[in-house]
Amino acid sequence: MSKRITNFDQSVEISDKATIGQGCHIGSRSRILGPAKIGNDVWLDTNVTIYGNVTVQDSTYIGSNCIIGYLRRQDLKQLIKDKSIENSVTGTTIIGKKCVIRPGSVIYVDSRMEDEVELGHNVILREEVSVGNRSLIGTNVVVDGNTTIGKGVSIQTGSYICKKSIIEDFVFLGPYCVLTNDRYVMRLEVELEGPTIKKGASIGGNSTIMPGVTIGEGSVVGAQAVVTENVADNSICVGIPARISKNVPASWKNLLEERYNKT
Amino acid sequence: MSKRITNFDQSVEISDKATIGQGCHIGSRSRILGPAKIGNDVWLDTNVTIYGNVTVQDSTYIGSNCIIGYLRRQDLKQLIKDKSIENSVTGTTIIGKKCVIRPGSVIYVDSRMEDEVELGHNVILREEVSVGNRSLIGTNVVVDGNTTIGKGVSIQTGSYICKKSIIEDFVFLGPYCVLTNDRYVMRLEVELEGPTIKKGASIGGNSTIMPGVTIGEGSVVGAQAVVTENVADNSICVGIPARISKNVPASWKNLLEERYNKT
Amino acid sequence: MSKRITNFDQSVEISDKATIGQGCHIGSRSRILGPAKIGNDVWLDTNVTIYGNVTVQDSTYIGSNCIIGYLRRQDLKQLIKDKSIENSVTGTTIIGKKCVIRPGSVIYVDSRMEDEVELGHNVILREEVSVGNRSLIGTNVVVDGNTTIGKGVSIQTGSYICKKSIIEDFVFLGPYCVLTNDRYVMRLEVELEGPTIKKGASIGGNSTIMPGVTIGEGSVVGAQAVVTENVADNSICVGIPARISKNVPASWKNLLEERYNKT
Predict the structure, then answer these.
(1) Secondary structure string (H, E, C) spanning chain B
(2) How far is Cα A54 from Cα A60, in angstroms, rounded to an integer?
(3) CB atoms within 10 A of CB A102
(4) I want to staple B96 with a disulfide (CB 3.0 to 4.6 A). Which of A194, B76, B114, C65 is the partner?
C-alpha cells in the first residue's frame, strides 16, 4: 500500500505542532507553519503555505501557490512588529473533505468551507467567510469578510461579494456580478450593509446589487441590471434601475438545486 | 558561445522524458513533470510548472509561478485518487515561438497558442482554447474552454470570454467585457452557447454580450452596452439593450489589422 | 536584541550589490537580483523576487510570490535576447515605509509608492505609476502605466485604471470601476487619453469613465454610470450616459480626507 505513505522532500517545512494523516502528498517547498491538522489523502501541490490552526480534511486538493489561514489586517501589522508568525496568527480555519482549491487561491483565517467545495484560480476568501457543501466559486472571485454562502451555490468567474453579504443555498451569480455595501461611497458615516440573495435566486452577469438590498427567493435578475430596491420572491427584474417585469414562469426550475439533490 | 548552454540549478526538477534545447534558462525550482519538448532559447523564470505533454517553441518567455498544461477538472479528481501526475495528465499543449507569458498565468491542457502571442499577468486559458498569431490577452483575462481566438486579436485587461466563444481575427475587446453563454442563468436546461465576434469588430469596455449573439464583421459596440441580438456587419451599436445607431464611418480603419500587416 | 538580526536561509538568493538593513526577515527562496536597498525591519515572505534597482524602506511587508521592479515590455524582449537580467533591468523603483503589499502583487520598474500604502492581493502596478501616502489599492486592481494616484485614495477591489490616468487625493473608487483611454476602440489613430478624477471625488461601483473625461472636485458618480462628459465640481451624476442630477448635499463629507487628517 505504498500509496498510503505520506510523501515529501527536504524542501518542505512542517511545524512540530502539525499533524498529518496517511497517503498525503506534500509538494516541494510547501510550508505548514503552525498546529495544522491535515487529514488523509490530502494533496498539497508546490509552494503552498498553511498558517496557524488550519484543519484540512480528507481527500482535499490544494493547488500550487495557495495560502490557507492567511492573516487578517491587524495580524499582519502585528507580524511586522513582532517578527513572529506564531504570535501573529490567531483563529482557526477549516477546509472540508474532497474540496478542490485551485492554484493561487488565498483563504483567510477564521473562514470555513464545508465538503466538496470547489474554487477556481486566484479566489480570495477573506476572514470569517463560510461556504456550504458543494458550492462552486469561480476564478478571480473575491469574497470579503463576514459573509455567508450557502450550499450548492454557483458564483461565476470574476464576481465580487462585498463584506457582510448573505448568499443562501442554490443561488447562481453570473460572471462579474458586483455586490456593494456602501450606499454613500465614503461621503456619510453609515454602517456597511451587504446585500442578501435569498434561496435559489439567479443574478445575470455584470449586474450591480446595491447595499442592503434583498433579492427574493427564486427571483431572477437580468444581465447588467442595477438592483436598487428589494425584489419580491419569484420575480424577474431587469434594467437600470431594475424593475420587475413579470413573475418567474412556472416551467423554470432551479438546476443547481435539482443537480445537488440528484447526486 | 556560453549563452547557448542551457542553464539551471539543482532545485529544478526535470522529467527523464523531457527534451530541452540549447540556450535555455530554467529558473530555480521550476518543474518539468512530463514528456515536454522545450525548444531553444526558452526562458522559464522561477517556480514554473509544466505538466504532461507540452511543447514550448523557441525564444518563448514564461514568467514566474506560471503553470502550463494544467489539469482539467476530471483529471484533478483522478490525481487525488491516484496520486500520480503521470496517470492524470492526458492531452497535449502547444506554445508557439516568441510568446510572452507573464507571471502567474495558467494554461490548461489541450490549449494551443501560435507564435508571438502575448499574455498579461494571471491570465487563465482553460482547456481546448486556441489563440492565433500575435494576439494579445491582457492581465486577469479568463478564457473558458472550447474557445477559438484568431490572430491579431487584442483583449484588454479583465475581460471574460465564456466557454464556446468564437473571436475572429483582429477583434478588439476593451477592458472588462463580459461574454456570457447561459441565457436562463441555470433555470432551464439549455445548451450553453457562446457569442461569436466576427473579424475586425471592436467592443467597448465593460460591455456584456449575451449568449449566442453574433457581432458582425467590422462592427463597433459602445462601452457598457448589453448586446442581446445579432449585430449586422459594419454597424455601431450602443445602449442597454444595444441598438444600432449608424454605420461605421468610411474613414474608420482597423488599426489592429493595419499594424499586423505592417510588421 | 535577536529580533534585530536579519534572517534568511540558504535558499535565498541575494546579489552582491544589494544592501540589507537590520531586523529583516527574508523568506525562503526569495531572490534579490540587483543593487536593491532594503531598509530595516522589512518582511519579505517566501518566493518574492526583487529585480534591479529597488528601494524598500523600513518596516514594509511584502507577501509571498510578489515581484518588485518587474520588467517593462521592451526589457522583457531584451531579456530573451541577452539572457541577462542585469542588462535588461533599467530604472528605479521605490517602496516607502510601512507599506503592506499582499501576496501575488507585481510592481513594475520606475513605479514609486510613498509611505503606508496598502495593496490587496494580485495588484498590478505597471511602469511609471506613483501612489501617494496611505492610499489603499484593493485586490485584483490593475493600474496601467504613466498614472498618478494621490494620497489617501481608496480604490476598491477589481477596479481598472488605464494608462495615463490622474487620480487626485482622497478619491474613492468603488469596486470594478473601469477607466478607459481609447474612445475609438482601435478604429482611429488618436492619442490615448486617460480620465482625471479630481480631489475627493467618489465613483460608484461598476462605472465606466470614458477617455479624457474629468470628474470634478468632490463630485459623486452613481453605481454603474457611464461618464461620457466632464462633470462639474460637487455634482452628483447618475445613469447611462451620466447626467447631473443635483449638487452634493452640504451635509456630505469626505470620510477619506477626514480620517487621513485625524490619524
Answers:
(1) CHHHCCECCCCCEECCCCEECCCCEECCCCEECCCCEECCCCEECCCCEECCEEEECCCCEECCCCEEEECCHHHHHHHHHHCCHHHHCCCEEEECCCCEECCCCEEECCCEECCCCEECCCCEECCCEEECCCCEECCCCEECCCEEECCCCEECCCCEECCCCEECCCCEECCCCEECCCCCCCCCCCCCCCCEECCCCEECCCCEECCCCEECCCCEECCCCEECCCECCCEEEECCCCEEEEECCCCCCCHHHHHHHHC
(2) 13
(3) 28
(4) B114
- Cβ A187–C254 below 8 Å, yes or no? yes
pLDDT single digits (tens) A217-248: 999 999 999 999 999 999 999 999 999 999 99
Beta-carbon neighbour count of residue B251 at 10 Å? 7
CB B174 within 8 A of CB B203: yes
Q: How far apart are CA B18 and CA B8, in angstroms?
A: 14
Q: Name, in order, each residue with C-beta under 8 angstroms of C134's C-beta and a sequence gap of 6 or more.
A: C114, C115, C116, C117, C118, C151, C152, C260
Contact B41, B80 (CB under 8 A): no
CB contact under 8 A, A142 and C154: no
Q: What phi, psi does B24 have (nearest 5°)? A: -85, 155
CA distance B40 to chain C (A): 11
Q: Rounded distance, CA C248 to CA C259, Å?
A: 20
- Strand arrangement of the beta sheet that strand B129-131 belongs to: B19-20, B37-38, B53-56, B92-95, B112-113, B129-131, B147-149, B166-167, B196-197, B214-215
Amino acid at B29: R
Burial of B243 (0-12, 13-18, 19+ CB in 10 A): middle
For residues B179-192, one letter each, b for 16 or more C-beta atoms within 10 angstroms of the residue's C-beta and e for the rest, the string is bbbbbebbbeeeee
The amino acid at residue A184 is: Y
CA dist B231 and B236 (Å) reads 9
Q: Which of B259, B45, B9 is nearest to B134 (CA)?
A: B259
What residues of chain A lie within 8 A of the CB of C252, using their CB? 184, 187-188
Residue (of C108, C72, C177) closest to B158 by Cα position: C177
CA nearest to C173 within chain A? A185
Chain B residue at shortest CA distance from C46: B47
Pairing of strands C243-247, C235-238: antiparallel
Quick one: DSSP state of residue A231?
B
Q: Which residue of chain B is at minimal alpha-carbon distance from C226?
A: B224
CA neighbor of C25 nearest in space, from C41, C1, C47, C36: C41
pLDDT in tens, C65-107: 999 999 999 999 888 888 887 777 889 999 999 999 999 999 9
Per residue in A52-65, pLDDT (tens digit) is: 999 999 999 999 99
CA neighbor of A221 nearest in space, from C236, B208, B177, B174: B208
Question: Quick count: other Cβ atoms within 10 Å of Cβ C155?
Answer: 27
Q: Please answer yes or no on whether A83 and C25 come within 8 Å at the CB atom.
A: yes
- This complex has an ipTM of 0.96
* Distance from C-alpha of B103 to C-alpha of B69, rounded to nearest angstrom: 15
Residue to mutate among A12, A157, A169, with most B CBs inside 10 A, is: A157
Q: C186 vs chain B: nearest CA distance in angstroms?
A: 6
| Residue A95, CA distances (Å) to A66, A128, A205, A231, C64 in order | 13, 13, 28, 34, 21
> Are A214 and A227 in contact, with CB atoms under 8 Å apart?
no
pLDDT tens digits, A96-130: 999 999 999 999 999 999 999 999 999 999 999 99
- Among candidate residues C125, C134, C220, the one with its CA nearest the CA of residue C165: C125
* pLDDT of amino acid B2: 44
B131 grid coordinates: 489563440
